[in-house]
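User: Fold this, then the next.

Assistant: Folding the first:
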Amino acid sequence: MKNILWRIAWILVGLALIGIGVFFISSPNANLVTLSVLIGIVMLINGIIDIVAYARYRKIMISPGWELAEGIITVIVALVILFNYWVAAAILPFIISVWVLFAGITRTVTSFDLRRVGISSWGWSLFLGIAEIVFAVLSFFNPFVTALTIGLLVGIFFIFQGVTAILKGIFSDKMVL
């Protein structure tokens, strides 16, 4: 029963992330403060779920340390955004770049673990991880363009995160990602 609840939670978080991603894409010129607060809330929820999943399933996880690290970093970044949203709005491109870079590295490392245990969809995880790393690096080197297109770029990233969360929900009967 608990496993079913976790699967449902991952799928619901994934759908919420995709929904917010679609919102950001459909309104890319939304106020940066509004974007900062929404991003902070979603990141906080996502990070807490990663940490709770680690605490409950670390013995059967493929990459538990990476999952915990991503959860902790996500919560820290979310709290920085939520408690300093005016400052966060000013440096949002950099904050997003750091988060996306770490998520991309985590996803890339985890994809090889997925391949090792025979999960056929490991290539998608690798593709998403590399795409996130490329996006983060481009954002670091061109923060002005990132600031102008933050809604679109954040929307795409949230959709990536949503797909990953849904896959965690779908495949959690075989493993905890």
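Now the next one, as you asked:
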Amino acid sequence: MVPAESETGLRPSDDSGTVLLNRCRTYWQMAEWEKLGELAGEDLERYRERGRLAVLAAAGLAQLGEMERAREYALRAQEWGCNRAVLAQVLVGGAYNSLGRAASLLEDEDLAGQLFEQSVACVLPQDDAAVLGRSRNIQEKMRLGQLPDAMRSIGRELRHDPAPDHVRILDGQLARLERRIEELTPRPRTLPTILKNTARGTDRMPEAPLLVCGHHKVGTNFLLPVFREISETFSLPIWLKFYDPEPPRWKICLHQHSRLEGMTMPANFRGVHMVRHPMGLLHSATLYHERGKEPWLNVPMQRFTGETFWAVSSRDSYNVIKNPKRSMQSKIDQLTAPPPPHARIHDFDSGYDFAGRTYAEMLRSFDTLEEKILFEMRCYSRAVLLDMLAFPADRRFMTVKLEDVTHDRAMQTLQPLVRHLGFGGEPAAQVLKIAAKNSQWNKGKTAHATTGVSSGWKDLFRGELGDAFHELFGWAEEALGYD
């Protein structure tokens, strides 16, 4: 919002310098001190608005630590007719901004927020000060190198359903933050170099059994081919727990639903548990289930409950439902059969009356994507998220995020994981080569990889859908390590 002349004195006239002054006022609001400092290289005297421009130049130079030049431009502002009250407002606002930066460095978040807000309030109305003060807080954190804090602040602002103008400001700050992070991130080495350097280490093979745990729409399309090939390459017997009964001996156990109950856990295992941002998972699962070909999606139902999820995600039911020789009634009976006593069942009822429709038909019956995601959130993927959140906190498991692995050309996530699993030297290089071959950045998007781990879900969860998510799952994204 542009403040009135009576509020700040910085309202531009229609004379020469108006366009520049408008632009510089925006720089001041957004704490773009470098841009304001560049005014010192301009011939300001030729502008009718030279007094106000000199004030803004002084403010920028002061924040950049160039105090002598800042004083010079403050004096010029007075000489060129700038109102003393306006000069005082802007310079006092700058002092509050400097104090806010100091509080931020001392990690006093509450005080920093108050000081940045006050730095804006010295010049702008209180209505603008609250929003712009928070935006300035984020901007200064980026300037101070507090990039994780800046990212968290942006996330907090977006979670509170900000006004459209504020969203545009935050989107701009997010883009600048991403550029800054990219600038600070070392250029990744090429894959051949990574493999060559890895192979120089001491050759090592896992001594402990490996447990590989994923969830539906959480990287199983990556984990399955990778660990199958690892099994073949190193002659490590693999047990695909979802598909097959337990063999007499195994060295790798892979389970798409991360159900560890009912199996004897070796004491010395090493494991990986893959997670995904829960909102991204819901978006991806919704699109996939609407047109997917998994057999259970096309079996008529009456309700979807925790018991239904157990049935559609268990090996016995899967083998019945996928069998084209079995009657539809036998498949319906399989989904409604009581689970065995040892089964861990999530106690919920989705609240939807299927009335004999299939899961895919129910999804297609809704008009909007938001309605479809809400349905998915209360049905199948509700249990998937509950499983992910309930996964045991065990240091023998290394938790990795699907988002980190998907674009990991530099192997910054995969290299530590391979070491954790017990591979070293040439075997580790072979595992990384297998992983690279099956990574999405190398293969492109597959039919199963519905959204390619995109961020297209973010806008969908602002507002009512986000409220519904947090009502069901609390702040599940933070529990899983996402800001």
